[in-house]
């Protein structure tokens, strides 16, 4: 509405217009909520079921309720503070929150998608939370380039150094525990307690993986007793650039469970965080950016797996894929076929992953090569 | 270096052409005369080759329903035998036999019993080692010296090594009770027929799987001899099945829904096809594919040892080795000296009868492979690289290619990028270790590499930065059953050998 138009509007008409616009907004939100709900139920019934279990509210959301949900979810852990009562007795106004712009994380920087696109992330109840960047195939290529540039330095760093940086990330995660919990609760529709438990499990898992940095070589390396006068040693090495398709749920715990084992050994990663998982993923990116992790070691794209996965699976400078978050078996098979062009290592999606189970070394080992060095022994 | 080559190589060819002596002995300029060798042929009387062979399914030899092919001696073009081509129905029967053996016998058998079968097989191989070495040489074209001294000892060693793992799997680092996968579909190449069979079958059986194995269509005979040996060992029927045939048989085998595991050694092109074929399935896959290994010689390397290493890296098995050091990266300051020594040594290579115990370089495995080598060598010349071939008289019949070295090779030439799989070496130069590493890694492959230097810290630094699964430092082309082997990048995935090699056959 232009200033000119507003100036001409009579008070009554103004109220009517405001009502109209409010109901329009509400209708738009409802239809967006329905779209999201329909999409979710089509794509992933189990997640929808989980969300529904925690959601005691009616399926249709009024604009007012949606706004309340937004306040409690997107604005995070602390309730909005209020200004002191005015001297003239007018009631205190709640402080207007400063919202965060969710962008991509590429090469250590936070650019928007080169495509200029974004998508609406809503709470499990359908309330607007944020506009996340809708990454394009060009963003995916930029991410691979950044990951490749970072590979030499990261894989060449000492294992102790990598472990220190990963542990530093856990420290930074801990400091933002409540923020993650609020975001998880907002995007997954789980209770605050459940969300907090997920955030804590994610931090603990990160710490567990951090400790593997300087141990995996001893556990996976061997001295081989060859039948001849040769020194013969096999040691694990990172495979290179790994494209990781993170599961949408559990949003943070799933992402941490697939990302940490990739980078702990010296690989660099291009991560696609789908749908609403974008929010905790980009907050994780903020943690990574402030933890001495070299730029480009982890690159996070947000958007649609179906759009980002094919170019990454076909990219000739990507060495391996983790298809954890690819729920459509047809798409998973198509990606595996595309990956065959340069013999990418492919970790297939598990039919019913149990993220809380002891992860073992499985995911670390999936993205390791074994190098065997021979040298004669003699005087 | 460029200053002395043209006249030098032309003269060398003339020397070879006018040498009236034996095909292989000659005097090289600047060296003492090399003495003549009398022929020392290994007798082939020890080998009995049947006129025709059936498939080995469920412990019995059964006729194939997909027709027949012939296998020839590549050194003479003599037809050795006819063998069955397994049709899709035959493959079906073989997989069913393997499934039945897996479920009823092999997966239930204690590891200690499986171990004893594998030890038996290892002993039988040792007992029939000479016969198998001669048979391999006849069917493949490789020198008896190699089959006798390299292939067969390693085949037996592989079975011995994995026999011992069968009852120790809980200590291998794959959990307290790792389970087998089921039926393994295995397709192997023609360059090390029996050795590749051992690399595939020994770990598969040790882990409790049963197998259906397809040998290459130009070298089926030792695999069929191995089938006989399984019966001598009283191996339960269906634990090992051998289906012969060409690409179609292999494709039917790897795509078979009854296969739980696919293992392939061969070309990157076929490996890609297999990776596509199994996409979306639950089959576990390991692929050991092509290579274009760099063999890096620094200026401080002991020259004579390095030259021997270069010879071994590219002329062992006629260069038909996936991990052959087909790109020689030599430090610029020693290029001329090294190349002179290399040519001098190449002149003494004895090319000819594979059954002659003095032969260094045998026959190329097939007419098709010879055509491929010839085509790539022609491309090398057309693109401007400079060719020098060792002067030697090649036999009139059979498939032969003289040991060849290309200089003035650019990184973009086909002979520097594509796997030739023949006795053809491409020489490139470098100035700094950084350049050597960058050039070595400038390939989509990553199977093996070599480093020659007397400086330990440099050797370790370079070995660390090479993106290759096996790095031979001051040696080349060494293999051992306890030593993991396999590639990075487009050389495939998975490792064969040692505890690492068990992973490919366990549900972990």
TrEMBL record, chain A:
<dbReference type="GO" id="GO:0016491">
    <property type="term" value="F:oxidoreductase activity"/>
</dbReference>
<feature type="region of interest" description="Disordered">
    <location>
        <begin position="1"/>
        <end position="98"/>
    </location>
</feature>
<dbReference type="InterPro" id="IPR016161">
    <property type="entry name" value="Ald_DH/histidinol_DH"/>
</dbReference>
<keyword id="KW-0560">Oxidoreductase</keyword>
<dbReference type="InterPro" id="IPR015590">
    <property type="entry name" value="Aldehyde_DH_dom"/>
</dbReference>
<feature type="domain" description="Aldehyde dehydrogenase">
    <location>
        <begin position="119"/>
        <end position="346"/>
    </location>
</feature>
<feature type="compositionally biased region" description="Low complexity">
    <location>
        <begin position="8"/>
        <end position="45"/>
    </location>
</feature>
<protein>
    <submittedName>
        <fullName>Aldehyde dehydrogenase family protein</fullName>
    </submittedName>
</protein>
<dbReference type="Pfam" id="PF00171">
    <property type="entry name" value="Aldedh"/>
</dbReference>
<dbReference type="InterPro" id="IPR016162">
    <property type="entry name" value="Ald_DH_N"/>
</dbReference>
<feature type="compositionally biased region" description="Basic and acidic residues">
    <location>
        <begin position="46"/>
        <end position="57"/>
    </location>
</feature>
TrEMBL record, chain B:
<protein>
    <submittedName>
        <fullName>Aldehyde dehydrogenase family protein</fullName>
    </submittedName>
</protein>
<dbReference type="InterPro" id="IPR016163">
    <property type="entry name" value="Ald_DH_C"/>
</dbReference>
<dbReference type="GO" id="GO:0016620">
    <property type="term" value="F:oxidoreductase activity, acting on the aldehyde or oxo group of donors, NAD or NADP as acceptor"/>
</dbReference>
<dbReference type="InterPro" id="IPR015590">
    <property type="entry name" value="Aldehyde_DH_dom"/>
</dbReference>
<dbReference type="InterPro" id="IPR016162">
    <property type="entry name" value="Ald_DH_N"/>
</dbReference>
<feature type="region of interest" description="Disordered">
    <location>
        <begin position="1"/>
        <end position="26"/>
    </location>
</feature>
<dbReference type="Pfam" id="PF00171">
    <property type="entry name" value="Aldedh"/>
</dbReference>
<feature type="compositionally biased region" description="Basic residues">
    <location>
        <begin position="1"/>
        <end position="11"/>
    </location>
</feature>
<dbReference type="InterPro" id="IPR016160">
    <property type="entry name" value="Ald_DH_CS_CYS"/>
</dbReference>
<feature type="domain" description="Aldehyde dehydrogenase">
    <location>
        <begin position="62"/>
        <end position="507"/>
    </location>
</feature>
<dbReference type="InterPro" id="IPR029510">
    <property type="entry name" value="Ald_DH_CS_GLU"/>
</dbReference>
<keyword id="KW-0560">Oxidoreductase</keyword>
<comment type="similarity">
    <text>Belongs to the aldehyde dehydrogenase family.</text>
</comment>
<dbReference type="InterPro" id="IPR016161">
    <property type="entry name" value="Ald_DH/histidinol_DH"/>
</dbReference>
<feature type="active site">
    <location>
        <position position="288"/>
    </location>
</feature>
